[in-house]
């Protein structure tokens, strides 16, 4: 089929829009697909990866998943991994090392399918000195064992890059070891489950009527139950003791207090009953409580291991950079960069420290840092701030501030950003449970006073029975299960929240602030509109030839727009940074540039991003670069407008002001040229006025605002790339469903309240028996699991129903 | 457990007889058998608890050794073909 398309393309070149998919990565091949090995590729990079795999017999890679490759359009610099030859760095990346082998662990964010898994686990076929490679798919990590006599960490990193899986090594990897995952709750759950099941089983004989003559045997079962309940009481329930004690030290009761009370009272009374031969005790209820509460806890503590919500500048910067010393290039680690060093920054590299430009043409992309959508051109002698990305040729800078002292990192380390929001004690559930505890105490005291006057013997029985049966388990369980379920559903829709508390915070907001560049707009620089006289194909080709001489993204966009492959020769090409370019093509003098450049009017300040064309002193028209807004954003804004206050804070220029005013309404707050501190202060101001604010942003310039807001959501095109610290991460193409996500979070509270009411009913039934002093162990043992399981089913079912109503996956 | 319930029922029918008559030979035998059944139950208890404890130990070991760390790759991994060299 591809061959027919090729034929058609030769016959009718420009009328058919044949977009071929790259065999390797699946992207469109644009105008010039590369044809090799009877397949099409979008770029040389993809073709080279195919050839490597083909030579080594690894073409099953393409059979397992369709187009599994990652686009190789952006080439990786050759000695990017030179810093891996350094001994100290190798040491910090090595997990284990003996005489012949070394174990290392790389983070490969590009892992996304089973083909990746297959290829990487067959890495030894590409390099015989790699002994094994094991992938942890959830964390996207590759654990590689290799023979260090014959190959090195650097060679392995380069091999991985050559097949498209470039390891992401950041400064953070150098500094801390990875935190150990805490599995203690799971062990406690296992023990509690084992004991719970066996205690229930051994309680059957007494419930079903063992004869008084068989007292010896009955005692065996009773003491077995005591034995089995010991691990539960001392080990499995320790989770709750610790939590309740911590909050007691601060002077108030949290949700675990009634659980602890219930467990302790049940255990003591049961011990008393068994030792004085009065009864069989309530060990099954006690272990059941602990078991179900642990399940709830584990479900609610679900975290997204492969994402990180805690980011600081060390995760953003690379590990090492090239330094020029005595006219020679050498690698230096970021923390070792000193004042007065001269650094060599390559194309697409991040600037790690504030410095002065000493050589080369600097075109810095600050869109991630300040939100400016147009790269900034800097001249020799100007200060370049850290955090931007160099586009174009190599430049050299003279360091004037160390990495930790640069403007960017100082911003990040600001005091406001260090304050951690108090996580735990804000849920409405905590409030309810506190009332619950006091009410239970009151009932117990009432019951015992009643029996004090009527029948002494029943006093203690009634009081302890009340404390045993009135457990807020159902409330806490419903909360835990619903939260866990909603976290999961949102995660399936690519909206990852940091923890369950965030769900409630989202439900409470009443004001939403958006960032513009990268959040409401894509960072693509392609949306080009031409206004002016229609251009002939020849003229387009000439303009394209001129534009192709420059590396400025605007020039590149113009070249792509012209979509003519003919290139003419350009004589006398001149580029004026910040203004424009000019040259002579086919005898015509053509100039492309800003309004002031073309019209020679130096007083005009740029309020829009436009490029004018002048051919032989006649202005043919202009290109306007409009922001490419994400799909369905207007409908999202319409939905949100009626319920929430809205604002847009942008670090960019004012060119989009009119469009945004139309979209959000004339009284909405839309501000431009916002520096990171301005955004933070704007949010603070709103909070002082009593609003609960949600901030949605994507870049480093939003980091302060994201932390200051009640809820900070980081938007990202690809959840594997860096995002600033936030309470939630949202994938960019799901942004338009924000309204439904918020509604689901609101529904969470309703479901929990409903479950709470049902649990109150169960409690009333139990209390009915308890206050009369006739609560038998069997009744308690039946009531407790019954209530827990039914609450579980109800909350699960309801929250899934709600999610379906919001049309979520 | 079933054995025990059965034992209870025989006990009920037994008790009436014991009060009034001297125990005859076959009643002594039954009594002795019942004593044996009790120790059988104790044995059963020990056996079932130890088996359950073995399973608990296996559970804790498997979680500790990291078998559940990555749940997405093992199901895919088992389907890969071995290379025919």
**Beta strand % of chain B:** under 5%
N-to-C SSE string of chain B, H for helix and E for strand: HHH
- Per CATH, the superfamily of the domain at 487-522 and 629-745 in chain A is HAD superfamily/HAD-like
Low-confidence stretches of chain A: 12-17
CATH architecture verdict of the domain at 487-522 and 629-745 in chain A: 3-Layer(aba) Sandwich
CATH class of the domain at 487-522 and 629-745 in chain A, anyone?
Answer: Alpha Beta
Overall helicity of chain B: over 70%
Helical/strand content category of chain A: alpha+beta
Radius of gyration of chain A: 33 Å
The CATH topology of the domain at 487-522 and 629-745 in chain A: Rossmann fold
What's the count of strands of chain B? Answer: 0
In percent, how helical is the residue content of chain A? Answer: 40-55%
Largest sheet of chain A: 7 strands, mixed
The two chains with the largest interface, and their residue counts, are: A-B, 35 and 30 residues
């Amino acid at each position: 089929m591809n061959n027919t398309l090729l034929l058609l393309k030769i016959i009718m070149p420009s009328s058919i829009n044949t977009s071929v998919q790259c065999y390797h990565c699946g992207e469109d091949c644009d105008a010039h697909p590369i044809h090799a090995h009877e397949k099409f590729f979008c770029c040389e990079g993809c073709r080279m990866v195919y050839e490597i795999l083909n030579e080594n017999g690894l073409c099953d890679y393409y059979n397992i998943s369709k187009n599994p490759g990652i686009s190789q359009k952006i080439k990786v610099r050759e000695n990017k991994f030179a810093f891996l030859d350094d001994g100290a760095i190798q040491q910090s990346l090595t997990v284990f090392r003996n005489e012949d082998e070394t174990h290392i662990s790389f983070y490969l964010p590009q892992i996304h399918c089973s083909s990746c898994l297959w290829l990487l686990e067959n890495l030894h076929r590409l390099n015989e000195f790699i002994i094994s490679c094991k992938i942890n798919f959830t964390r996207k990590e590759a654990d590689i064992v290799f023979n260090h006599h014959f190959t090195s960490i650097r060679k392995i990193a380069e091999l991985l890059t050559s097949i498209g899986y470039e390891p992401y090594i950041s400064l953070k990897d150098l500094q801390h070891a990875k935190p150990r995952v805490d599995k203690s709750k799971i062990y406690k759950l296992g023990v509690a489950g084992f004991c719970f099941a066996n205690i229930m089983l051994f309680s059957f004989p007494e419930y079903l009527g063992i004869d008084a003559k068989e007292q010896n045997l009955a005692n065996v079962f009773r003491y077995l139950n005591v034995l089995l309940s010991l691990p539960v009481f001392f080990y499995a329930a320790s989770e709750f003791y610790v939590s309740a004690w911590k909050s007691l030290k601060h002077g108030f009761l949290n949700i675990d207090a009634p659980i602890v009370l219930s467990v302790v009272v049940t255990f003591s009374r049961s011990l008393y009953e068994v030792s004085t031969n009065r009864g069989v005790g309530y060990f099954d209820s006690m272990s059941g409580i602990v078991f179900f509460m642990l399940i709830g806890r584990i479900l609610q503590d679900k975290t997204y291991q492969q994402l990180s919500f805690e980011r600081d500048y060390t995760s953003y910067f690379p590990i090492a950079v090239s330094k020029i010393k005595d006219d020679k290039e050498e690698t230096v680690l970021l923390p070792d960069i000193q004042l007065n060093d001269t650094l060599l920054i390559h194309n697409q590299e991040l600037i790690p420290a504030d410095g002065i430009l000493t050589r080369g043409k600097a075109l810095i992309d600050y869109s991630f840092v300040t939100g400016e959508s147009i790269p900034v051109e800097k001249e020799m002698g100007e200060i370049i701030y850290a955090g931007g990305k160099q586009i174009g040729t190599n430049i050299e800078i003279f360091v004037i501030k160390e990495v930790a002292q640069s403007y960017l990192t100082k911003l990040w380390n600001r005091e406001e950003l260090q304050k951690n929001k108090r996580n735990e004690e804000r849920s409405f559930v905590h409030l309810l449970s506190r009332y619950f505890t006091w009410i239970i105490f009151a009932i117990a005291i009432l019951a015992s006073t009643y029996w004090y006057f009527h029948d002494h013997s029943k006093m203690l029985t009634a009081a302890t029975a009340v404390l045993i049966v009135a457990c807020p388990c159902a409330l806490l369980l419903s909360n835990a299960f619903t939260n866990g379920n909603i976290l999961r559903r949102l995660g399936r829709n690519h909206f990852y929240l940091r923890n369950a508390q965030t769900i409630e915070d989202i439900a409470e907001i009443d004001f939403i602030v958006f960032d513009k560049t990268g959040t409401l707009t894509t960072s693509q620089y392609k949306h080009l509109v031409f206004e002016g006289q229609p251009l002939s194909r020849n003229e387009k080709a000439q303009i394209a030839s001129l534009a192709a001489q420059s590396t400025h993204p605007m020039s590149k966009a113009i070249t792509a727009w012209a979509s003519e492959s003919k290139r003419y020769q350009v004589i006398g090409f001149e580029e004026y940074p910040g203004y424009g370019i000019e040259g002579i093509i086919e005898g015509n003098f053509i100039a492309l540039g800003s309004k002031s450049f073309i019209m020679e009017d130096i007083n005009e300040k740029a309020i829009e991003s436009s490029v004018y064309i002048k051919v032989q002193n006649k202005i043919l028209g202009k290109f306007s670069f409009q922001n490419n807004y994400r799909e369905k954003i207007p409908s999202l804004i319409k939905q949100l407008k009626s319920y929430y206050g809205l604002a847009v804070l942008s670090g960019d220029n004012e060119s989009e002001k009119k469009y945004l005013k139309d979209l959000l309404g004339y009284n909405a707050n839309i501000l431009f040229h916002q520096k990171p501190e301005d955004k933070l202060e704007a949010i603070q101001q709103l909070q002082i006025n009593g609003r609960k604010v949600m901030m949605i942003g994507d870049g480093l310039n939003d980091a302060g605002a994201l932390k200051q807001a009640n809820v900070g959501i980081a938007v990202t095109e690809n959840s594997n790339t860096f995002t600033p610290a936030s309470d939630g991460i949202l994938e960019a193409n799901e942004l338009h469903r924000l309204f439904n996500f918020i509604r689901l979070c609101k529904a969470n509270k309703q479901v929990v309240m409903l479950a709470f009411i049902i649990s109150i009913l169960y409690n009333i039934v139990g209390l009915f028996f308890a206050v009369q002093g006739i609560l038998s162990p069997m009744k308690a043992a039946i009531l407790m699991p019954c209530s827990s399981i039914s609450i579980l089913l109800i909350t699960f079912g309801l929250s899934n129903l709600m999610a379906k109503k919001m049309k979520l996956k | 457990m079933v054995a025990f319930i059965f034992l209870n029922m025989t006990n009920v029918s037994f008790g009436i007889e014991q009060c009034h008559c001297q125990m005859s030979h076959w009643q002594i035998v039954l009594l002795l058998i019942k004593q044996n059944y009790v120790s059988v139950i104790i044995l059963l208890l020990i056996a079932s608890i130890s088996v359950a404890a073995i399973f608990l130990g296996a559970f804790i070991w498997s979680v500790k050794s990291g078998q559940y760390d990555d749940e997405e790759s093992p199901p895919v991994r088992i389907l890969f073909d071995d290379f025919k060299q």
